[in-house]
Amino acid sequence: MTDALSHADLDEDQRELAAMVRDFAEQVVAPQAYEADRTHTLNLDVVRQMGEMGLFGLPFSEEYGGQGGDYLALGIAIEGLARADQSIAITLEAGVSLGAMPIYRFGTEEQKREYLPSLLAGEALGGFGLTEPEAGSDAGATRTTARLDGDEWVINGTKQFITNSGTDITRFVTVTAVTGEKDGRKEISTILVPNGTPGFTVEPAYDKVGWHASDTHPLTFQDVRVPAENLIGERGTGFRNFLSILDEGRIAIAALATGAAEGCLEAAVDYAQKRIVFGAALSTRQNAQFTLARMRARVHTARLAWHHAARLRDAGKPFAEAAAIAKLVSGDAAMDNARDATQIFGGNGFMNEYSVARHYRDSKILEIGEGTTEVQLLVIARALGLSG
Question: I need a surface site. Which of 107, 140, 208, 231 has the fewest CB within 10 A?
Fold first, then answer.
């Protein structure tokens, strides 16, 4: 919705960005969303246009081809896209937060010069290989290994649920791997592996419940050799570094979830006003009005939460707890609004041609990906000083 309440805390440039992305979402993203979902196909022409708009470069400095913006700007763009198509929104979110950001934050100057320009232009994508069959929320259980053999890392292991890892424009994945042991604990480092490296296999895409047009694959590494200089950040800092990346990513996912919740609200309001039941519009019924009002409140609350977290991050202040709250609140909002919107639509809400059906399937992952609801509760509990 474009009323004053939705944009009350944005400045003129931010409102212009929101309007630009909204127009793009309505004119370009929405028309292709149903077919892309049906065929499980990521539309790379849409990705290319997003790159031309500068969306992939929003929170990066102009030195590397970015727009010189911040995380709030990125969230505004992701939220606007998610209203129309969560698969496209997650492609942007993962391309920035998980693909480019590790190099931007922790890479060498040579790595930044080599990889960032194409990533920030939307001409290439990168994946982030963290999750494994037995290491998800418990990322410290990582089993993928990397050992130095002369001037090369030799990598063995598997990763799963890796976004943007198998597209025609995917250039690399960065993977967390055990590179040794220190003080009785695993030493985890992050290493960049270019696509096409011998022994690195991008397995067939998953058959997912939702996010059908988002590219997601399991990955296999069998004696994969990459140069020693492909280490991202210092050796042994991979665990700490990926935690900071996930904290930032939770803000972006919260923005995505807010957009999904808003997309459900807008569709439900429009449908309720047009649907005639017992001689009157469904929107005149108090029960429907109360449902829509609650949906509206969820969107507003979710947006306030992720805006707050983004502003803390952009100001260089501690934001981990705020990011966890934002993801918790917005994930709930997306799921609750998807359920309520589907109910407003009745039988039509069960038909995939309607956007609310797609949001109903897509939104569940927002309570799982980049930290489950339970992980967010744990982060918040620890911020309260609780342990156990």
Answer: 140
Candidate list 93, 132, 262, 370, residue with the active-site label = 370
Residues 347, 298 contacting (CB under 8 angstroms)? no
Residue of higher predicted confidence among 182 and 363: 363
| Residue 367 annotated as catalytic | no
pLDDT of 184 = 80
Encoding tokens for residue 341? 């919107």
Res. 135: pLDDT tops 50: yes
Task: Check: CB of residue 212 under 8 Å from CB of residue 227.
Answer: no
Q: What pLDDT score does 2 carry?
A: 46
Domain boundaries 12-125, corresponding CATH code:
1.10.540.10
| pTM (2 d.p.) | 0.95
Q: What is the pLDDT of residues 46-63, one digit of tens each?
A: 999 999 999 999 999 999
Domain ranges of the chain: 12-125, 127-237, 240-383
Half-sphere exposure of 181 (CA within 13 A, CB side): 5
User: What tokens were used for 288?
Assistant: 């429907």
CATH of the domain spanning 240-383: 1.20.140.10
CATH class of 127-237: mainly beta
| 3-state SS assignment for residue 1 | coil
- In angstroms, the CA 6 to CA 127 distance is 32
